[in-house]
Amino acid sequence: MPVRIRTALVTLVTLPLAACEGRQSALAPQGLQSDQILRTLLLFLAVAAVVWTAVVIALGIGLLRRKRMPERPLALHQDFEKATGRVVFALGFATLVIVLGLSIVSYAGQRTVFAKDDNALTLKIIGHQWWWEVRYEDDSPDRSFVTANEIRIPTGKAVKVELESADVIHSFWVPSLTGKMDLITGQKNELQFTARNAGVYRGQCAEFCGLQHAHMAVAVLALSPDEFGRWRDHENQSASSPTDVLGKQGEQLFRARGCALCHNIRGTLAGGQLGPDLTHVGSRTTVAAGTLPLTPATLGAWIADPQHIKPGNYMPRMPLQSGELIAILHYLEQLK
Amino acid sequence: MTVLADERELRDDALNGLELATRLERLWRTPSGLLGALMSVDHKVIGRRYIVTAFAFLLLGGALAILMRIQLAGPEQTFLSPDKYNQIFTMHGSTMMFLFAVPVMEAFAVYLVPLMVGTRNIAFPRLNAFSYWMFLFGGCFLWISFLLNVGPDVGWFAYVPLSSLQYTPTKRPDVWAQMITFTEVAALAVSVEIVVTVFKLRAPGMTLDRIPLFVWAMLVTSFLVMFAMPSIMVASTSLILDRLVNTRFYDPSSGGHPLLWQHLFWFFGHPEVYIIFIPGTGMVSMILGTFARRPVIGYPVVILSLIATGFLSFGLWVHHMFVTGLPQLGAGLFTASSMLIAVPSGLQIFCWLATLWDGRPVYRTPLLFVIGFIVVFVLGGLSGVMVASVPIDTQVHDTYFVVAHFHYVLIGGAVFPLIGAVYYWFPKITGRMLSETLGRWNFWLALIGFNVAFFPMHILGLIGMPRRVYTYTADMDWAHLNLVSSGGAVVFAISFAILLANVIYSLRRGALAGDNPWDASTLEWATSSPPPPQNFDRIPVVKHRDPLWFDNESLPVVAGLSIERREVLLTSLAEAEPQTREASPEPSVWPLITAIATTIFFVGSIFTPWAVLWGTPPMAVALIGWFWPSGSREDEE
């Protein structure tokens, strides 16, 4: 399809949705794979629109055209019957040609979308009810680290994510970058994508995974390669020790009040493995896997009563006095 | 032959007219009183109950849909808790698929097929009664559990490991899996009855190429049920075993695999769609022939399309699993096989369009619903071609795009024809016409409400809204379209309220229908409305595909069946030549007792494996009662 027609089609389809052009949309592609998928989709859409219109027009003409005078239902005209039979077969054959053609187009698109780049940056995503564990792996263990619910990638470079599940089946889906892939218990899946432009791309679990399936979002931050390198170096470091009194108190309370049983903060005694790693939680953009934007207020509300914000999630409400809450909050905010 | 032994037996050639009708009516009628009603083996009585029960489940499932649409009308609403929402979407899907769509099609077949093929009762009438009771008890079991807050909450697809004991340690998935067992038993029983009725009980002369298209559709559907249901039976039984007695079919840490469940489920789940859709096409063909005032063009093409659809439907289950990490070439082949089903479906559409093109359409409500069917279903079929493509599916899978797609296919392909069928056959079943004015309101509100409710969902899916979410955040830009969709759902619901009002009003006040109010061509219109217990005083002889248009003065009949005991005429499979007379069972309460015993067994076995032990003897006793020799002449010979 010539580029101009394609652009026109894209505009036509997305025009009424201009307001909807969000960060999580298959119609607003920002990756090489999502571009290809949208091209295939628009071609199919065009064929579908033409066929549907043709059927409805044929139906309309069939109903409205002037008929012969009423007669007995079985008084059929053999010529008409024969001619109609031929037309029906011709249309059936045309359908066959169209679907075979579309199958080939689809397969070509599929090859592009699933093409593999051996030099891709590899990271591993493990699905949990209801958050994402993200592992950046490197050949040397001291360059490997763990984070959660937020993925940063360099633009223009292929990224390979290895997908696993710690419990039930989830599905990793960031529509602006590429299509989805399931995280299946006992199986390793793989997905590759390349972000064209810098930006924040929201994704969401797409396979029903229980009570809080609706609140299991992931943010993909595409950064320029330089910026990504700096971020990776920083993220690889352990948490910095708090310098002020309140922060030190917070660090202590984090262990004393049970937070450390589930959460890991590298470089401290907090080493729990059940919940998300919080080493650099202060630098993230959202709370509770995309449920709320991260601000001191939302983080405080979340710690005070996680069951109110995301009912049924596995973080219990800990009995904290308001002073204790403020100290813990202050400590976590510092973990940039 | 039993001719000599029957010398003193009275046959239907000995009497005529009213006397014959009265004798036959006394012979075939359902005994009076409550016990009599529970004993009924009349396919019309059971078919009516089946239809009413299935529609009751439609109303319940529809009410759940409205609750979901209220919850989703705006972002972050707290009308339903996540726990309730998950139960409700699971109940909606399970009710609509297992308690409404499949049973209602079987229900119409139970009522209509024996009339259309010109016989006195369905084959295996007691099994038919048993099937209805199992369906009723299974449906009640699910809904009572739901009202007791034990409604399933893992989706109508119940994917493991979410539905395993580890992640759902309640009884909810067991209820779901056992409800499946109930409906499987019911559906398999009906399928066997339909196949045997069509193969052996057709009126003399109704050769294979004179069978009405709805009967053909139900025959193909019945075979689909028989081949698809065992797969879900294996799946749900092994799920219960995993949960109850610690087997490891789906546990990857012990060599099982979660994808085994998905393969088994969709090997059933995809044909299931055609189990619902193919009867719909049968209804369309019947209505179209009558209201286009000419036979449907391409009768053999339509039948071959039905059969081809049936075969192909078993070869495309993998398109539900494109994002599970399958080999790419394999997935690509399933794209082609999935799209291929557009060919037989397309051929049928072209035949119907050609029929309308040549016919002289009479715009009554049934035809309106068929026109609505074509407009809506073709759109759903085309979005189906889109989701069959692997790359497109990776974006739209498990989003509202798919929700839109399958509602266009199922409501467009099955519910629109079904409502048309209600308007079309209501006069036959009740003897009264439905109101045409209310019918038009019903149709237009259904068409508009449906499209307003479901079309925006295509866009919602493309702009990122996943399925099965109980809410969404305000910054997602999904609120407007969701609100529009919820508004459409209300209009759509009103159209069903109008249908209900029309039925209730017309049952009392509707115009009397007469035998053949639409001047239709098939045998069910050759008897009175509603038909007498014996269906036909004498078995008709068929000389043409459209017998009532061909012999529009008086239908030829064959005589010789007993009027002292229930008898049906068996004919040969292909040519429908008379072969022998066969006794048809008397009313019996044993099917009900067997169903009760089976229900106790099924329900008990989700609580303790010992139920398999103590649940069996009562069933054995009930079956012995069921098959106890009645001392009839046939038994003794």
From TrEMBL, chain A:
| Transmembrane intervals | 41-64, 85-109
The record ties this protein, via Pfam families, to: COX2, Cytochrom_C
GO CC, one annotated term:
membrane
Summary of the function given for this chain in its UniProt record: Subunits I and II form the functional core of the enzyme complex. Electrons originating in cytochrome c are transferred via heme a and Cu(A) to the binuclear center formed by heme a3 and Cu(B).
- Source species, please? Bradyrhizobium manausense
Please verify whether the record's keywords include Transmembrane. yes
InterPro entries hit by this protein: CcO_II, CcO_II-like_C, Copper_CuA, Cupredoxin, CuRO_CcO_Caa3_II, Cyt_c-like_dom, Cyt_c-like_dom_sf, Cyt_c_oxidase_su2
Q: Which domain of life is it from?
A: Bacteria
Q: Which family does it belong to?
A: Belongs to the cytochrome c oxidase subunit 2 family.
Q: Where in the cell is it found?
A: Membrane
Topology relative to the membrane, per the entry?
Multi-pass membrane protein
Please list the coiled coil stretches: none
Q: CDD domains, per this entry?
A: CuRO_CcO_Caa3_II (cd04213)
Q: What is the reaction catalyzed?
A: 4 Fe(II)-[cytochrome c] + O2 + 8 H(+)(in) = 4 Fe(III)-[cytochrome c] + 2 H2O + 4 H(+)(out)
GO MF terms here are: copper ion binding; cytochrome-c oxidase activity; heme binding; oxidoreductase activity
Query: What biological process terms from GO does the record include?
Result: ATP synthesis coupled electron transport
For this entry, the protein name equals Cytochrome aa3 subunit 2
Q: Start and end of every Cytochrome oxidase subunit II copper A binding domain?
A: 118-234
Q: Which UniProt keywords apply?
A: Copper, Electron transport, Heme, Iron, Membrane, Metal-binding, Respiratory chain, Transmembrane, Transmembrane helix, Transport
The Cytochrome c domain covers 245-336
Automatic annotation (TrEMBL), chain B:
Transmembrane segments annotated in the record for this chain: 50-72, 92-117, 129-148, 175-201, 213-241, 273-292, 299-319, 331-355, 367-392, 404-426, 438-463, 483-505, 589-613
EC number(s) per entry: 7.1.1.9
Keywords attached to this Swiss-Prot or TrEMBL record, sorted alphabetically, are:
Cell membrane, Copper, Electron transport, Heme, Iron, Membrane, Metal-binding, Respiratory chain, Translocase, Transmembrane, Transmembrane helix, Transport
The answer to whether UniProt assigns keyword Lipid biosynthesis to this entry is no
Q: How does it sit in the membrane?
A: Multi-pass membrane protein
What is the catalytic activity of this protein? 4 Fe(II)-[cytochrome c] + O2 + 8 H(+)(in) = 4 Fe(III)-[cytochrome c] + 2 H2O + 4 H(+)(out)
Q: Which NCBIfam families match?
A: CtaD_CoxA
Name of the protein described by the UniProt record: Cytochrome c oxidase subunit 1
